Model the fold of this input.
Amino acid sequence: MTDAEDTFYTKDRWQNWIERVAEEELDPENEDSARLLLNLQDDAAIAVAKIISAYEDDRLSEDEAVDELAGVRDIVLDDVDLENEEKRMLVDGVQTSLVCVFYAAEEYIAAGPTDDGTIEEYVHAAADAEANEDLDAALGYLVQAGTRIIDGDELDIALVEDLEYGLVSEWVNGLDSLQSAMSDPEVVEEDED
Done:
């Protein structure tokens, strides 16, 4: 990226992924199907990482970075037109995972990384909040964990294995994609088989 005019993500890019999902026989237990969904998620996380990088390199102002993030978020979290309900649910899972990624990026740009706790502490606090049905607090804790990931701290994905399946585990899965994107923001090829 050379200037603020560069496009970080497009509706066409997202739609190409959705068309691939529509065309594929998806089985979440199948490695190829799981990889397609993960690539869909990672691709959006890479766009977020590139926006953060452009902001940190002074190629985007804070307002421009927030606007770019909002643009990507609007594309990725928009309703998906898939006739197959199971596929729609699988894409919805990807979208859910990415919610925390967008909020963490916005928080990082607006306020920088938190220095109040570790990623592990935030993940445990989020799991406790979810157990107490306080999903706003759970998301808030993981957003703070996300700012630490963006700042270079490492999320130990083994933490996910201890989590009950639910929103927190989905959000942490999204943070794992963000971590991968921050360390290696290479574009995921849409045409991979």
